[in-house]
Please model this.
Amino acid sequence: GAGVSQSPRYKVAKRGQDVALRCDPISGHVSLFWYQQALGQGPEFLTYFQNEAQLDKSGLPSDRFFAERPEGSVSTLKIQRTQQEDSAVYLCASSPRASGNTIYFGEGSWLTVV
Amino acid sequence: GIQVEQSPPDLILQEGANSTLRCNFSDSVNNLQWFHQNPWGQLINLFYIPSGTKQNGRLSATTVATERYSLLYISSSQTTDSGVYFCAVEDRGSTLGRLYFGRGTQLTVWP
Model:
């Protein structure tokens, strides 16, 4: 597609439920990022893929968070045993290559844990 | 990581007014981008500007990399300019493209 596409756009999960958020980056983009944005804050880095390789996962807040990009295109962010503090917007972004490039964001997946 | 500070945190304008938003950062950068976050949450690219000056319609931006700041100018503001403006930078030492964001400037333009 023309832009970064994310689904679902909105997700309400009960505490303890597992969720999976999907990102379809711009075709041909090597780099893919996940960010988390809490209400009233700027986005914060979670993890980075270069093709299928996860090169940086230092921003993942706990081992309940897991991301994959098995074929170097679509990526999934999975959150296990969701907790209330996981409520946030999860933003996916892609870029043609690694450093020093314009980065394009999707519309985000709004997660509310109740 | 690199620190990014944006000012002012909030800005209220009447339609037609001009404004300047500022972004200070704590270290040398590979990349600096300005974004507008629309009411639906999407971050819209405004400028990729690690240095120099760029203009796009009523918007322009200047980054003075040696002094570690960037300015976003909005002229003749319109109600559709309302939203949150973010500055984001990539540490010069990075090879991976990770962006560090400021907390944003919330702009409200009244008719």
